[in-house]
Amino acid sequence: MPRDINDFKKGYQPRPNTVKDEKCYLFTDSHITLARWRKHFSQQLNLHGVNNVRQTETPTAGPLVPELNAFEIEMSIEKPKRHESPGTDQIPA
């Protein structure tokens, strides 16, 4: 937050977009900057020479609500709650 206030007091001050190459030379050209970032992420994200990659199975979560058995269904049908108004379908219990 204090940085925002200081920026407001000083007014707009453009910041140079610079990037260093492998030899630590600074570049400000947008095309060279984009090419450098492309090369950087290409080196970081593309693995070369990796032969021993094992595929592992990811465990999945079980159901959050357990399945109802026949007894639970029968009990809910036989003993409906009394004195309740019907729902949006207008069908009483």
Number of helices: 3
Please tell me the overall pLDDT: 76
Poorly predicted runs are none
Spatially, the strands of the biggest sheet line up as 1-2
- First-last Cα distance: 58 Å
Strand content: under 5%
Largest sheet: 2 strands, antiparallel
Helical fraction: 25-40%
The shape is elongated
Using the CA coordinates, give the radius of gyration. Answer: 32 Å
Order of helices and strands: HEEHH
Quickly give the structural class: mainly alpha
Beta strand count? 2
Condensed summary:
The chain is mainly α. The protein has helices spanning 2-10, 30-45, 70-78, and strands spanning 19-20, 26-27.
Describe the structure.
By secondary structure, the chain is mainly alpha-helical. It has a domain at 14-45. 37% of the residues lie in helices and 4% in strands. It has 3 helices and 2 strands; from the N terminus they run αββαα. The chain has helices spanning 2-10, 30-45, 70-78, and strands spanning 19-20, 26-27. Strands 1-2 form a two-stranded antiparallel ribbon. A hairpin with a 5-residue loop joins strand 1 (19-20) and strand 2. The protein is elongated. The two termini are 58 Å apart. The model has no long low-confidence stretch (mean pLDDT 76).
